[in-house]
Amino acid sequence: MAVVLILVILAVGSVVFHLLSPWWWTPIASNWNYIDNTIIITFWITGFVFVAVVLFVAYCVLRFRHRPGNRAAYEPENKKLEVWLASVTAVGVAAMLTPGLFVWNQFVTVPAGATEVEVVGQQWLWSFRLPGANAKLGTSETRAIGDGNALGVNPNDPNGLDDLIIEGGELHLLVDKPVKMLLRSVDVLHDFYVPEFRAKMDMVPGMVTYFWFTPTRTGTFEVLCAELCGTGHPQMRGTVVVDNEADYQAWLEQQQTFTQLLAASQQPTAIASSTSPGK
Amino acid sequence: MVDIRSGADEVIPLAEVEDVELYHPKSWWTHYVFSQDAKIIAIQYSLTATAIGMVALVLSWLIRLQLGFPGTFNFIDADHYYQFITMHGMIMVIYLLTALFLGGFGNYLIPLMVGARDMVFPYANMLSYWLYLLAVLILAAGFFVPGGPTGAGWTLYPPQAVLSGTPGGQDWGILVMLSSLILFIIGFTMGGLNYVVTVLQGRARGMTLMRMPLTIWGIFTATVMALLAFPALFVACVMMLFDRLLGTSFFMPAIVEMGTQLKQGGGSPILFQHLFWFFGHPEVYIVALPAFGIVSDLISTHARKNIFGYRMMVWAIVIIGALSFVVWAHHMYVSGMNPNFGFFFATTTLIIAVPTAIKVYNWVLTLWRGDIHLTLPMLFALAFIVTFVNGGLTGLFLGNVVVDVPLSDTMFVVAHFHMVMGVAPIMVIFGAIYHWYPKVTGRMLNEAMGQIHFWVTFLGAYLIFFPMHYLGLLGIPRRYHELGETAFIPESAHTLNMFISVMALTVGAAQILFLFNLAWSLKRGRPSGGNPWRATTLEWQTPQTPPAHGNWGKELPVVYRWAYDYSVPGAAEDFIPQNQPGLGMPTREHAS
Question: What string of DSSP letters covers B186-240?
Fold first, then answer.
């Protein structure tokens, strides 16, 4: 029976593929191992259902395939069985949804001590802004974008004057310190995506979106754009470096403030040295 | 308690069943071209959908050539790649699947299966097709206009869809796409009203709603949904046209594009996404519900067994249809909308899994203790169950909001939706064509070609999309025309991409064999007779095959039973047509 054999191979083969697949998620670098765990639970439940259904179909074909003289049974309904199956399904669904919603609650609840970091997307470049000495980000708006103010920081907001601006460069983060990523775009949709952090969120022009996470190991990670943003979409790359305290402070001291950048833009000769190295 | 099997002994008096006033064609033109006969319109819809579907197939080849062998084919640059994926997606979802299921199968099967002579508004039905054809032609014209078709992705998200960084954004491409969609929706509405009213008003005597074949329930519910969902897309298209042509700001906030401040401001890109997915999610079920219905009938007929739990199946279709209007934002978990929406939409989305699972159980329980004939329609139905269960289950990953966060916008999503709303419904389409081709043409499709077509398509499609999930799990984003040097992507992922591409080319080639079979069997297929599958439903009981204009000769059929009287104990044959009063035996033995 070719059909039966192929269905069995398909079911078993899918499980074997899953277990042996060299294509698996990247080693995690954030606190969101809860998400990974929920995926594992979901794989177990759905994998069981898939194998059970396909093998049941294979068995039916083997056992009830047409032979001369066969006649099918006549059984329009079986209320008990239908209710029982629906209930088991509901339990299985709840077993996946419940942990999912608990973790989502964590995902949307930013811890009080989280550092704020702003990411600004534009075609096709990542820029970043960190709070300066006063630990507060200044307000911003797209209309304020102009010479020396590529991110649209509000020049009239004193909180913004000491903000550190990293245009097209690397973002450094402190390990084990929760960070709230504030996401802005100046042109089209983008999406700040670092596979190792698991979390991602679209960046929408006209509004500020966010997500939070805690980097859990030091290292260098590639930033990708995960929302189609035009022809240069795959080339929109950036770098996040997760540092320990000493490295982080050393890096921080090299960054320029908004005030410095504004001043530099008024001296034509300084522009070349202060503009970004590009992507 | 309603006894759904009842009716065998009821005597239903004959109604007035004289020929109703139909517009009978007077010339070749009104017979074959400007036809008002739903069956001809169905064939016109199907052929047009197949033709534009072939374009989508070729585009999928080009997409896979680029992904499998990046840098090898110089004519596929980034612009072209995005144009290809956009056109491929839009054609497949709207111009092929929606048009074929509703315009094709809906037109052919609704009047025949409910026992009507034709659709209730034949003239509007004809207009529906011609508007559809116009929409398809305008869509295809996109390939020839300055700048080429839009490359905004099939979701057409603004602002990038109307800006210069996207192919067709500031050229003609996006205008052509939006105009075509608007025409499609107008045309569909004319057809859709027909399908709904015909099911509600045009049924033969005795054809109660709870005796209708599930095919009709699926198409009917999908059409009602489409009539409610498409207006959201219509509005979104019109607003985007205004944004692009008149400088309005429905979807345009303050934007600095490549260093230039644009004049528009104050609009909301997320508003478009809500409108799009308010249409877009029901759209998934607009494609899936007809497939659910048709596959139920294929399984029942070819397993010679009544569909298990008919009433549960009907209610599941209706409940899925209703619920699918309150889950749309699960496409937007990482869109930046208020994240608290996630709780609501994850819950509604996972609740849909319950009625959907019930349908799967009832299909496989129909096989249980059946008399399974492994005909081509049955093989495709089995392939549907496998691929639909696979794709449905990965939906539980993406629907569960927090699990969606790492997986969204990766190849996992691409694999999921291709499996569940690409491969699975297309398996049903193939099964349905092998099943109903004899009614349409009077001839059987060639079995040997069909077997090759089936195995290559089913196994090939599974081998394309099953491994693709793991590329997404690894983190490879979708809509990348090249992965470049990316630290986390191992060399083996490129090898897998090559394998997937080779499978895609193979599966595509098998479809050419299928088209050849369709043409070849037209003249050389084995004559089928009127009811080759020994099926119960009305379309197999027509006086002529293919059915003549008006379908039923002098008298309309009268329906005495539900659509699933297969292998009834005590009956002479293993099927009793819906229009047969008794059990087909001289002595009536009643089995409980």
Answer: HHHHHHHHHHHHHHHH-PPTT--GGGS-HHHHHHHHHHHHHHHHHHHHHHHHHHH
B386 and chain A: CB distance < 8 Å anywhere? yes
- How close does chain A come to B566, measured CA to CA in Å? 8
Instruction: Tell whether A151 and A255 lie within a shared domain.
Output: yes
CB contact under 8 A, A100 and B400: yes
User: What is the residue extent of each domain of chain B?
Assistant: 40-249, 331-525, 535-587
Quote the domain boundaries for residue A199: 115-274
Give which of B303, B156, B288 is closest to B217, Cα–Cα: B288
Q: What pLDDT is stored for residue B151 in this prediction?
A: 95
In a domain, A97, yes or no: yes
Report the percentage of chain B scoring pLDDT > 90.
88
**Co-location of A177 and A209 in the same domain:** yes
Compute the nearest-CA separation of A31 from chain B (Å): 13
B8 at interface of A, judged by CB pairs closer than 8 A: no
Residue of B nearest to A79 (CA): B309
- Give buried/exposed letters for B267-293 (b at 16+ CB in 10 A, else e): bbbbebbbbbbbbbbbbbbbbbbbbbb
Chain A residue with minimal CA distance to B159?
A188
| Homologous superfamily of domain range B40-249 | Cytochrome c oxidase-like, subunit I domain (1.20.210.10)
Q: Do B354 and A70 touch (CB under 8 A)?
A: no
Q: Which of residues 250-279 of B touch A (CB under 8 A)?
A: 253-258, 261, 265-270
SS3 A172: strand
CB contact under 8 A, B370 and A228: no
Please write the tens of the pLDDT for every residue from B284-325.
999 999 999 999 999 999 999 999 999 999 999 999 999 999
Partners of residue B381 in chain A, C-beta under 8 Å? none
Compute the nearest-CA separation of B402 from chain A (Å). Answer: 5
- CA A125/CA B231 separation, integer angstroms: 37
Assigned token pair, B418? 């291709």
B-chain CB neighbours of A100 within 8 Å are: 346, 400-403
Within 10 angstroms of residue A158's Cβ, the number of other Cβ atoms is 11
- Please provide the CATH number assigned to the domain covering B331-525: 1.20.210.10
Q: Into how many domains does chain A fold?
A: 2
- pLDDT at position B20: 56
A98 and A229 assigned to the same domain: no
Q: Is A27 a member of any domain?
A: yes
Residues A102 and A189 in one domain: no
Nearest to B342 by CA among B413, B282, B271, B405: B405
**In a shared domain, residues A82 and A124:** no
Which one of B373, B402, B466 would you mutate to disrupt binding with A, by most A Cβ within 10 Å of its Cβ? B402
Burial class from Cβ neighbours inside 10 Å (0-12, 13-18, 19+) for residue B266 reads exposed
Picking from A17, A72, A186, the nearest residue to B305 by CB comes out as A72
Write the pLDDT tens digit of every residue in A136-151. 999 999 999 988 888 9
